[in-house]
Design brief:
Elements: H1 3-11, H2 31-35, H3 54-63, H4 74-77, H5 80-115, E1 121-125, H6 132-137, E2 143-148, H7 163-176, H8 178-183, H9 188-194, H10 204-213, E3 217-226, E4 232-234, H11 238-243, E5 249-256, E6 262-269, H12 274-277, H13 281-288, E7 293-297, H14 310-319, E8 320-325, H15 332-337, E9 342-348, H16 363-372, E10 391-397
Parallel strand pairs: 1-2, 1-7, 2-6, 7-8
Antiparallel strand pairs: 3-4, 3-5, 5-6, 8-10, 9-10
Helix pairs in contact: 3-10, 5-7
């Protein structure tokens, strides 16, 4: 077990110390209002910390297989199906942590933190529920903005503890993690199935899981839409979000880090193509208000190579201080066209894209790799996830 995982095991555990000791089951229609009854009242030692919501935090720990016992959901943590899931997933995560996370952290410490300027906001379009890589690569950000097609979903009520119900839930949870743990990215086609079923009906399950496994505690989780000016409109619950007609739907999660800092994660469920944004004035205004941020792009389906993703592409080109991406992000030709002087630090090997995206080969990027040279990456990432075939770029403005 690595030092990183050991730290998580110490810092993240179900917190049984609630003001009320009776078991509490959440209603998705009034999740945040009702959960105030179970907020911990223990004295805070750091002014930046916010009060942890015990119900939400225990949910996250259960999803992550990190909850030995819970006063909020005692029947769940005592259930054999949960215990089997927790034991199996912990072994699976330990393998992931010791093999991949250690190398990701080494890359962050030796390369990323030296090359990029810290910005408070990290923008990660086409992310799906992958909050894991942003918090590992950009730990100094205080606001993470993720965008994907996958729905937000609703929080599990954990009322029905029949064996078959819990077994299906944890089996689906395990299945939905296969790609990210093995290949480093979520497959869009798989996500459309894995996150649209009765048990796991959206991204929030995996967002909670990754936040917990990376050492964070949950303060709040609010469903929201955007008004026409790009302002968040908070809803009373996630069932209301599913019924909302607005083009922009999302979840805002406030969480405390292991370093006692309060941070914000906003996940937007929407289509970022130009034709879709024509009818989504709210998100266009939201994008227009973004300035001085860093951007991360990985496994982005080469969508930003296409003309009809110009709005989000121009937002990134104009507003990003630094961009960390693989070749599936913004095509190199767009950087050359806009006339902005940039530095390119190259890692890994640029080769032809996988067969599915064979038409996205970039001759100019290949030439840059051959002319400038690159630094070994040391881990697999993106569609060419095999170590010797992966590529990554750090792009900064002069």
């Amino acid at each position: 077990m690595t030092k990183y995982l050991a730290l998580i095991l110490i810092l993240v555990a179900c917190n049984p110390g609630t003001k009320k000791e009776e078991s509490y089951h959440a209603s998705n229609d009034s999740i945040n209002k009702q959960h105030t009854d179970s907020i911990t009242t223990q004295k805070l030692e750091h002014k930046k910390l916010a009060l942890v919501n015990d119900t939400l935090n225990d949910m996250a720990a259960i999803m992550a297989g990190m909850c030995d016992s819970s006063k909020v959901f005692p029947a769940i943590t005592a259930n054999l199906n949960y215990k089997d899931f927790a034991a199996g997933f912990s072994k699976r995560w330990n393998d992931f942590d010791s093999n991949r996370v250690t190398r990701l952290l080494d890359f962050r410490n030796t390369e990323l933190q030296k090359a990029i300027k810290t910005e408070p906001t990290l923008f990660y379009p086409f992310s799906g529920p992958d909050i894991l890589y942003p918090v590992l690569f950009f730990p100094d950000a205080t606001k993470y903005i993720l965008v994907g097609l996958e729905p937000v979903g609703s929080l599990p009520e954990f009322k029905d503890i029949q064996n078959d119900t819990l077994k299906r839930y944890f089996n689906k949870l395990n299945t939905s993690l296969n790609a990210i743990l093995k290949f480093s990215f979520f497959r869009t086609e798989s996500m459309s199935k894995d996150l649209k079923n009765t048990e796991i009906n959206g991204t929030l399950h995996l967002l909670f899981l990754f936040l917990n496994r990376s050492g964070n505690t949950v303060v709040s989780a609010k469903a929201f839409t955007l008004d026409s000016l790009g302002n968040k409109v908070y809803l009373s619950g996630f069932n209301k979000l599913a019924q909302a007609k607005e083009a922009s739907k999302g979840i805002e999660i406030m969480f405390n880090t292991a370093n006692s800092e309060l941070k914000e994660l906003s996940y937007f469920s929407l289509n970022m193509a130009d034709y879709a944004l024509k009818g989504n004035k709210g998100f266009k205004h939201y994008l227009a208000g973004m300035q001085h941020f860093n951007t991360y792009l990985k496994g982005a389906s080469y969508l930003l190579h296409k003309e009809h993703f110009s709005v989000v592409r121009n937002t990134i080109l104009n507003g990003s201080t630094s961009i960390v991406q693989d070749d599936s992000g913004i095509a190199f030709s767009y950087f050359e066209k806009d006339g902005v002087m940039r530095n390119y630090k190259l890692f890994g090997t640029y080769s032809k894209p996988i067969a599915m995206f064979s038409n996205r080969y970039q001759k100019d990027l290949d030439s840059l790799y051959k002319k400038q040279g690159s630094t070994p990456l040391g881990f697999g990432i993106g569609y060419n996830f095999k170590d010797k075939n992966s590529n990554l770029m750090i792009i900064t403005k002069n």
